[in-house]
Specification:
The complex is a heterodimer of chains A (about 280) and B (about 130).
Chain A: E1 3-10, H1 14-21, H2 28-35, H3 38-47, E2 51-56, E3 71-74, E4 78-79, E5 94-95, H4 98-110, E6 116-118, H5 125-135, E7 144-150, H6 160-175, E8 182-188, H7 205-217, H8 227-234, H9 242-249, E9 256-266, E10 269-277
Helix pairs in contact in A: 1-5, 4-6, 6-9
Chain B: H1 19-24, H2 26-33, H3 38-46, H4 48-54, H5 59-66, H6 70-75, H7 80-87, H8 94-102, H9 106-116, H10 120-127
Helix pairs in contact in B: 3-4, 8-9
Classes of the chains: A alpha/beta (about 280), B mainly alpha (about 130).
Chain lengths: ~280, ~130
């Protein structure tokens, strides 16, 4: 039977990809940000999960605004990265597991999450950069992946509560799969940031730290907020933090906190790494 | 026909990308999305006005594109991630754009960001439980 061993959160800012590609990770600006990933990398090396479900949002590579699914699941054997116009060199393709994806899709729909299934799905920096930060840039990648895209770009976007409940359904979907697979769930994006408008540059360290503590220990707390309240506090792009709740919902209610790292500012954001482990 | 009001409409200096924004600026965002392809970026560089015509970007939208008015495009409904596809390959970073939105220099914008992290290590140490380098 497949089981979720834990969850990891990571920012997915584009500059991370270039900092790695240009060998800048030990430069003063980046050092603390990247050093804080080391315990997460060690945990992944030791646990060596077979498969990572990566919860991210597409920023206009796979999806254009003609069709914007609220939740979309990759159901392919391979996922390609590509030119997204952001001066990031594409990385090697990612191996998928179509049979497992379709099982998850069937289970989610059965649980009233009417997810969009994608047999072709280009993955952008939102998916790629957390993997680069957590594994380094690899070819081939050391983990099989399933992309789970959440619309955080064009409102209406799903609520924090809905994302948390999707996580619950995801857990049931994984645990009802017969193969012996160890699965990790990555919640990407966030924390507070706003790229647009005269309010660009907003970072709310206090709220970010509260989010990290609560998502680890009391995730229901986050579900009390409307998206308007979250954006008012964390910025329009800070809304990505709702994706952490998909990851958190997929874990046990009480988890072991393995690692907690926060850095701000990096690029325009507050960035958080959580490693949460399910008890056996 | 009325656009529904939202409780995010009054967040200052903020243009939440919703149906109202996306609807009016659909051709503009389609043009910006096309910059995922290197060939399209080159075509735009060669003749921006003709490129707008190809995507049905006209009137005030076209003027905003031709004058590279990022704040104007944002207010008119350009999505920030799509806008970045025009800005970044032209050497305008997201921080340059943020500075332009506020009418300050990039250095000033970066200094404001760095100030947000002041005393972070002490703050985390006090809070406890965080990796702290």
């Amino acid at each position: 039977m497949a089981r979720i061993i834990g969850g990891v959160t990571s920012s997915h800012i584009p500059a991370v990809g270039n900092a790695i590609a240009n060998g800048q990770t030990q430069e003063p600006y980046w050092k603390r940000f990247f050093d804080g990933y080391e315990p997460a990398k060690t945990w992944l090396r030791e646990k060596h999960p077979d498969l990572a479900i990566v919860v991210y949002n597409d920023h206009g590579l796979n999806f254009f605004l003609d069709k914007v699914p609220t939740f979309a699941l990759g159901c392919a054997d391979v996922y390609h990265n590509d030119d997204e116009g952001w001066a990031l060199a594409p990385v090697a393709p990612f191996k998928g597991d179509a049979q497992f994806s379709w099982h998850i899709a069937e289970s989610l729909v059965e649980q009233d999450f009417d997810i969009c299934t994608c047999q072709e799905m280009k993955v952008d920096h939102g998916f790629v950069n957390p993997l680069r930060a957590l594994y380094g840039t690899c070819d081939p990648w050391p983990v099989t992946t399933i992309p789970l895209a959440v619309n955080t770009v064009q409102h209406p976007v799903p609520s924090a509560r809905r994302c948390y409940r999707l996580g619950h359904a995801l857990r049931r979907a994984v645990e009802s799969y017969p193969d012996d697979l160890e699965v990790v769930v990555f919640g990407t994006g966030g924390l507070s940031h706003q790229l647009q408008g005269e309010r660009a540059g907003l970072i709310d360290v206090e709220f970010d730290l509260q989010c990290m503590d609560k998502i680890a220990n009391d995730p229901e707390w986050m579900t009390q907020f409307s998206n308007s309240e979250i954006m008012r506090r964390t910025g329009t792009e800070g809304i990505e933090t709702i994706m952490w709740l998909v990851m958190r919902g997929a874990l046990q209610s009480n988890v072991k906190l393995v690692h907690k790292h926060y850095h701000a500012p990096i690029s325009n954001t507050g960035a958080g790494v959580l490693v949460l482990e399910n008890y056996e | 026909m009325t656009w529904t009001k939202h409780d995010y409409d009054d967040i200052p200096g903020t243009y939440v990308f919703d149906g109202k924004q996306a609807h009016g600026a659909y051709p503009l965002n389609k043009l910006l999305f096309s910059f995922n392809c290197e060939g399209n970026r080159r075509d735009f560089e060669r003749d921006a006005a003709a490129y707008c015509d190809r995507y049905g970007v006209a009137g005030r939208y076209k003027e905003l594109v031709l004058t590279k008015d990022f704040l104007g495009m944002l207010r008119a409904g350009a999505n920030i991630y799509y806008l970045a596809k025009m800005a970044i390959p032209r050497g305008t970073s997201v921080q340059d754009a943020g500075a332009a939105f506020q009418g300050i220099s990039t250095e000033e914008f970066q200094a404001k960001l760095l100030a947000k992290g002041a005393g972070l290590k002490e703050r985390l140490a006090k809070r406890g439980g965080y990796w702290n380098g």
